[in-house]
Design goal:
single chain; 206 residues; alpha/beta; Metallo-beta-lactamase, Chain A; six-stranded mixed sheet; globular
């Protein structure tokens, strides 16, 4: 598997392009802006973007969804519980002083323990509510894409609509921390980390 990270959008969200070298099938995890760099890399590597997979429905992770999906023909997936966030995206945008946008469209919903495929690679969906009710992580090989559930040393805020501290604590301790210590964690913002490091250092343990 090959991967490239793009930092984009008004709150510097991480977007992850992953692809199977043999089949050239690709996915994009979160889409916080329409970036020509992503299009160029897809074209240069001869990739077919199969899915745009959203970790949750907050506006800073989805601003580029509609245009990117339209240009590249990708299908957009999100957990059913966060569809309401897409539909009411301008309520959230207004709270943080962002101008109105066209609500992002989605093509399908993902469910806990469901498996998707691109090329020869498998994506396991882990429903990890707490930051939002429909927050998910995507486990691909030895890599966990944690959205805004788990960050290096910390965890996602729970004071917004759908947030719940008890739920995010349970998601991290009873789902994410049950994974192998060697799994690399790629969050929705900031730098990567690992399961083993977070079991020791994350603020959720305090």
């Amino acid at each position: 598997m090959k991967m490239k990270t793009y930092i984009a959008g008004p709150i510097d969200a991480n977007n992850y392009l992953l692809w199977d070298e043999k089949s050239k099938d690709a996915i994009l995890i979160d889409c916080s802006d329409f970036k020509e760099e992503i299009l160029d890399d897809i074209k240069t590597n001869g990739l077919n973007l199969k899915y745009i997979l959203l970790t949750h429905g907050h506006f800073d992770h989805v601003l580029g969804v509609n245009k990117t999906a339209e240009v590249l023909g990708a299908k957009v997936g999100i957990h059913q519980s966060d569809v309401v966030l897409l539909e009411n995206i301008n309520e959230f945008a207004r709270l943080v002083g962002f101008p109105p946008i066209t609500p992002p469209k989605h093509d399908f919903t993902v469910s806990d323990n469901e498996t998707l495929e691109f090329g020869n690679l498998k994506i396991k969906i882990l429903h990890t509510p707490g930051h939002t009710e429909g927050g998910v992580c995507y486990l691909i090989e030895n890599n966990l894409f944690s959205g805004d559930t788990l960050f290096k040393d910390y965890y996602g805020r729970t004071d917004l609509f759908g947030g719940d501290f008890d739920k995010i604590k349970s998601s991290i301790k009873n789902i994410i921390f049950k994974l192998d210590d060697n799994i690399q964690v790629f969050p929705g913002h900031d730098q990567k980390t690992s399961i083993g490091y977070e079991k020791i250092h994350n603020e959720i343990n305090r």
